[in-house]
Amino acid sequence: MILVVGHKNPDSDSICSALVATELLTARGVEAKPIRQGEINRETQHILEVADAQVPELRTSVAGEKIWLVDYSDLAQAPDDVADAEILGIVDHHRLGDVMTVNPMEAWIWPVGCTNTVLFNMFKIEGHEIKPQIAKLMMSAILSDTVGFASPTCTQKDKDAVAELAEIAGVTDLDTFIKDLLIAKTDIEGLSAAELVEKDLKGYPFNGRDVVVGQVELATLEQVDDMIEALEADLERRCAEQGLAFAAVMLTDITTAQTRLLYKGEWADKLVKHEKDGVLMMENTLSRKKQGWPWLQAELA
């Protein structure tokens, strides 16, 4: 049995990748099971309902298990006891992280907009049938991660995958499909500051310290106007409780590609020079992976 697990604070690609990679392994004749490390967000719930798919089992311990990692290769995003598991595979679209293995493993890491684009091509390379349900999961994840093809992380491979998957899934009105997805993505009504920060929070080891960077995708920055102080307080709390050198959250308006960066921690003073009237705005910034985190690494070095 192989457990297929996405990263902590799972987003839609992480959950869909676990389900899709399980389908791929099953098609190979391997027994596999998708699991998740955290609660699913509203967009992911929308996707699972549209595809009529089940939520993977919540499981945070993998000691003694054989596992595949999907949508990450950083130990900070893996189950806490991953060192006691055997990693047999990785499928990802981010930078190569700090995962080390004892034995040779299968690894697919492509510079595309979504892990499901990699999985789509794995299905094609191996000649396995893609069922309509799996096609909906794949295309939804790709559209989510590329923000409906608007993100700079989007490649032609992502667009080609969605075109083929939409046909398999029977989706004839792609514009409406994308619109419904983005409405679910930007729904934050009733969420607390802590829940917003946690919504899509990733940890990174950097210069011998731990750093976290979250992202909240919004229809307009006005959605969080009255939550700025609470969000900053939550970042400060995380630094104090977890010994973080830096904690930040990207508040991203997906309609204008403007991002407001909130940040706290010992290294915060390195970014003050970029503020204007006490606010740090990042223009033309939609992607944490390709824009936000690379910029922060250069500034925090």
* Strand residues, percent: 15-25%
Summarize the amount of helix as a percent range: 25-40%
Secondary-structure element order, N to C: EHEHEEEEHHHHHEEHEEEH
- The order of strands across the largest sheet is 3-2-1-4-5-6
Mean pLDDT: 96
The biggest sheet, with number of strands, parallel, antiparallel or mixed sense and barrel status, is: 6 strands, parallel
Choose one word for the global shape: globular
How large is the count of helical segments? Answer: 9
Number of strands: 11
Helix/strand-derived category reads alpha/beta
Low-confidence stretches: none
Radius of gyration: 19 Å
C-alpha end-to-end distance: 42 Å
What does this structure look like?
With 301 residues, the protein is α/β, with parallel strands linked by helices. The chain has 9 helices and 11 strands. It has a 6-stranded parallel sheet. Helix 1 runs antiparallel to helix 4.
What is the strand and helix layout of this fold?
Layout: E1 2-5, H1 12-27, E2 32-36, H2 42-51, E3 57-58, E4 66-70, E5 86-92, E6 106-109, H3 115-126, H4 132-145, H5 156-169, H6 174-185, H7 193-199, E7 201-206, E8 209-218, H8 228-242, E9 246-253, E10 258-264, E11 280-282, H9 288-300
Parallel strand pairs: 1-2, 1-4, 2-3, 4-5, 5-6, 8-9
Antiparallel strand pairs: 7-8, 9-10, 10-11
Helix pairs in contact: 1-3, 1-4, 2-4, 2-6, 3-4, 4-5, 7-8
